[in-house]
Amino acid sequence: MTLQEKVGQLNQKLYGWQVYRKNGDQYELTENFKQHVQKFQGIGALYGLFRADPWSSINFENGIPLEDALHVTNMIQEYLREHTRLGTPVLFSEECPHGHQALDSTVFPTHLGSGATWNSDLQKKVSKYIASELMERGVHLGLVSTLDIARDPRWGRTEECFSEDPYLAACMTEAVVKGMQGDNKESPNVIAVLKHFAAQGAAVGGHNAGPALIGERELREIYLPPMKAGVRSGALACMAAYNEIDGIPCHTNRKLLTDILREEWGFNGIVMADGTALDRLLLLTGDKELAAAYALNAGVDLSLWDDVYTHIEAAVRNGKIKESIVDKAVKRVLYGKFLLGLFSEVDDKPRSVSVNRSKGRTLNLEMARQSITLLKNEHNLLPLSKRNKTVAVIGPNADSVYNLLGDYTAPQRREAVVTIKQGINKIVEEDCEILYTKGCGIRSTDMSDFDRAKTIASKADMIVLALGGSSAREFGMEFEDNGAVLDYDQAEMDCGENIDVAKLNLGGVQKNLVQELAALNTPMIGVFIQGRPYSLKDIEAYLDAILIGWYPGQLGGQAIAEVLFGDVNPSGKLPVSIPYSADQLPVYYNAKNSGAKQDYYDEVGHAMYSFGYGLSYSSFQCKFSTKEHETISIHALTNGEYINVSVDVVNTGEYDGLAVVQLYIKDLEASVTQRTKELKAFQKVWIPVGESKNVKLQLGVEELSIWNIEMKQVVEPGTVMLMVGESSDQLDEKKLVIYQE
Asked: What is this structure's pTM?
């Protein structure tokens, strides 16, 4: 390959929606696309050919429908084959944080909701289905958020995180990789591009892309485990994060992208830049060629929309980059194309992919059902009777299509989404009357609908009040060059990329609506649609029951209705702690056990609802099968043996249900400060009424090792407290002794 051709393979400069024009049912390639192909004699990857949303301005009128998708992808590949010397195919990359962001794709719950399921097996099935929808359109790379840890809920992208806990996030990341790529590492279905690497969730003040002021120990203990699990599962790509770590931008961090990722963990895949992130390096260098050198030397292989990597050839000519470094990156990109079979003959025949959309709906509904988290159920108000005479359904999220879906969502056909109001209408008996009004907006201060809300609530036997937030982008908004929202002053959007907040209170006049309806003394259930934990301190007392629905996806309204009326027993557990207020932050459960005072002079220090918490309509007793101490030697652990922890779980309630058995540890004798507790194993099990299950959980060297004072991962001798239960604050205890032979 010539240097020019090599540089072409490292570029993902174009926005996919800018490379074609649609005239009726005909498509043609733009001059912009043709000129880029001519300049670099090829393209490494093309982002967002099928992306549809307000930023791309693509909708059902001007976007590529499913039936035309393979025609367009093959048209692009054919042009490259015929108009470049080598005819190297392009990688098509697409966003799929909770389903492919394309027209008529399935929108699953956002990852914070998926994390609430505590069900990695279900996540694997969902990810496998998402991969089938990508393959159906000819897509090769699926960009999926799995690596960010939700340590500060003020951050607008909290909804994209699986959890505040690294172990839970790592398990879900492993499920995503195995689901999307498949079991054959030498022939993946699609390549999952895991993002963002690393520590983006540690941004100071919850500011999007802000600096992470953490040291290597915090990085390794909290923020690296998901990617390490991804590599262990066969991950073939990741995306570098916008943030810096201790002064070094991730896109120039050789220790992170090469020393740890490649040399320590054995990763041999592609590292992709985040959108225009390489251009941000000009804040350091003031020079595009030098910025390209920084990133390539660190280990960034593939660009995304930036100008910097278009200057690689000049940087080589000017002695700023060694061509051997370029060759390494090109080989990794070409290897990815080889694994995907792109060097076999390309033709107009559809790929051999069969997508069962009925199965997709079933998986979508099950993920939504298992994500719903019950926090309060005063006097066992729930489940409701379907024979209530009148139910008032009120609130800004009661009948809103897009508020259920989260950020990175394509335009929807109305019939594809079931709202909460629709779900309730469908499930209740025919003689049950449903009364509805919006009541108020998400952020609006308009209270003009309060009187109607109180009128219909006064006629009802029960009030279902759908509150919370929205990550729904709106057409007409302004965006940054990387797609982040730029102006949102007049919108209802209060979460999502670039929507960071200083407070965690409900927006607008939602609190006022709760208080005024509570004065009617009608039983009231709060259903919260949200992408981050809200402060419930000022409204919790007014609500008889509280359900967290997260952003539950297209079928979220049906799932919520099924839980409300008892067709489904809720089994969600909090993947993040819910604070009393933003003033307490941070309140994550696994803080360092340093002896510091927890409470403030003017506020408690603990969370209102802790990580792992979640009620059921049943009740479960979770105990160790025996109270005898466990013992194992360091030699046995380092040679691959495990401690098998036996736990007995009994359903003592009146409903069959899913129990989530959670195993935590606390190292009582260590050379460096440890955490108050750490999740190290979990299992979700179905237990009928009156029955018990014996659950076996394993602890091995990875779970029992620490990063010692020399920053080496080792198992130290000493006593470890084992704790098991159905949440992080209701635990049975016994000890494990690790001894040196």
From this structure: 0.97
